[in-house]
Amino acid sequence: MRAAALLCALCLLLTGCGKAASPDDPGEPGTSAPTAEPAAEKTQENPTAAPAARETSVTTETLPASVALPEGSGAYKVLDECPEEFARRELSDEEIRALAQEDLETARDRISTGGDFAAWLIAMGGQIYCDVTSNDEGQRTVGADFAYEWVHEMLTSTFAVSLAVRVLGDDLPGIGVVAAQVADNDGIFLCGNLIPADGGYYLISFDALTDEWKAVVEADRIWPEAFLPIWVDGFAGITAWCRSADNPHGSTLTQAFYIPGDQEVVLDCKEELYTPRSPWGLQEFFRDEALAADLAGQKVAHIKPENIGSYELSTKLGGTTLTAEDAYALLDMEPEQVKKRVKTAADVLMLMLAGQYGDCHGDRNITIHGQEWHYNLNAFQVMQTRTTNCGSAANLANYLLEGDYEEVGFVLHAYYIGEGGGHVYNYFKYQGKYYIVDFSWYMFENYRPDNDFPVMELDRLEDYGDRISELYGGACMALAHTSPGQHYPNVFDDRNKAYAIPAGVEYKLLRQETGENCYILTEYPLDRSQPDWTTFGKP
């Protein structure tokens, strides 16, 4: 569905996003005379050097020495909070809301403080997301114009830092961007703004200053991609913090960049490392190719169908009927043949493990009569591409297990408005009990055997509405339905606070909260000549 927050990462499938960077003159970062030592919670001096076995490279030749970020001493200071000089507010909430309706240049003229900038980010109404890439190969784009195209729809740390350079560039001379790939296995793309001050540099992520961002992180709906406020005297301090226990996002730093000034930079991703479309205009100050290769290997080494015995859905829903060899053999069969051989929920997961099914990067959408309907890959597309997400994994299981349980169906739920969109997964009726299964959890957590996700057992499906918070936080509406093919397409109509499904379809409402930030289940007219919805969205 439309980004199931923590577990459903989103990829923007865009055209024209790979254009070559056209950097403006970044200018020379200023270094104002120190006025006071930055307030610090922790200070790290002379951090331990990288192990000798690791070969890292620092590349600064793409920037003039006058612009490049200096190495510094390797010290960093962890701040209790963002310094007031960067967090203060000058504009009222009413003025900020008005600016959110204006163009980017107007916002640039009026906003002059970090606090106002952070409030403006939220006022534009974009839902807070993580892991947003600009194509399905993992490409990243840093740049204000690119970010502004999307920030009314979604807010990421990458978008925030890109816009900060444009909006605050005249008020915070020398402001730039630091991006770092860090954390175990899947990795987190950290982004923050580097601001010269106090004899060094503050590294701050303005989106992380807002209560809205903090609430989404606290609810575990995103992987936080913002830097915590730190002070450094050069890039060695950034490297040291990223690789230390002070970094809550992990310590497996593989790559880091400094991007000065207001420019657009496109980073292509291959084998866990980023390569800029044009190396001129940015500074790659850390790269650990050996670690990146190790992590790439770890990412798939455990994805094996024989690991199925460690998952709860096997013990609760009839075990497996396949061997590991059977699961691998399914990969060369037609969908109808696969359907005949797959008999249990655990068999579906074995197929996904054998094929190393990856992320298809979000749902699809089509506009019909002015409404944007969201849907997902059908089971045949999932097996063909070996990619999936929450809704398409549910479509796969629904197709393969039709007739193998007493009942197989879908659960669709919506999060509170502005807090993650919605989510789709399956329910099964087996031996008189109902079971809730989310196949996307396994894929989005990279099928790690130590992540044995719960399978909720219910006497009545209607009871799930009262217990949904045991599995998911922040769900305001939930429904269940059966279908011979795909789950129902849906509309997120924020203006009318409506979560819409096609008019006239059958469903069971499991949960409906009311309130200012709640989606209300609604039915919108839609041609229902395709009762299985399998070809919905096709020309």
Tell me briefly what this model is.
This protein is an alpha+beta fold and 539 residues long. The chain is built from 17 helices and 26 strands. The chain has an eight-stranded antiparallel beta sheet with strand order 1-2-9-8-7-6-10-13, with helices on both faces. Strands 21-20-19-18-22-25 form a six-stranded antiparallel beta sheet.
Low-confidence stretches: 1-61
Given helix and strand content, the structural type is: alpha+beta
**N-to-C span:** 20 Å
The count of β-strands is: 26
Query: Using only CA atoms, what is the Rg?
Result: 24 Å
Main sheet overview: 8 strands, antiparallel
Strand order of the largest sheet: 1-2-9-8-7-6-10-13
Name the beta content range.
15-25%
Q: How many DSSP H or I helices?
A: 17
Oligomer: single chain
Percent helix: 10-25%
| Coarse shape | globular
Let me know the average pLDDT: 86
Keywords:
539 residues, alpha+beta, 17 helices, 26 strands, disordered N terminus
List the helices and strands and how they pair.
Elements: E1 42-44, E2 76-78, H1 84-87, H2 93-99, H3 104-110, H4 114-123, E3 127-128, E4 140-142, H5 144-150, E5 154-155, H6 157-167, E6 176-182, E7 188-197, E8 200-204, H7 211-218, E9 230-232, H8 235-242, E10 255-260, E11 265-270, E12 273-276, E13 283-287, H9 289-301, H10 312-316, H11 324-330, H12 335-341, H13 345-354, E14 358-359, E15 364-368, E16 371-375, H14 379-385, E17 387-388, H15 390-400, E18 407-415, E19 422-430, E20 433-437, H16 439-444, E21 456-458, H17 464-467, E22 475-481, E23 491-493, E24 498-502, E25 508-512, E26 520-524
Parallel strand pairs: 3-5, 14-17, 24-26
Antiparallel strand pairs: 1-2, 2-9, 4-11, 6-7, 6-10, 7-8, 8-9, 10-13, 11-12, 15-16, 18-19, 18-22, 19-20, 20-21, 22-25, 23-24
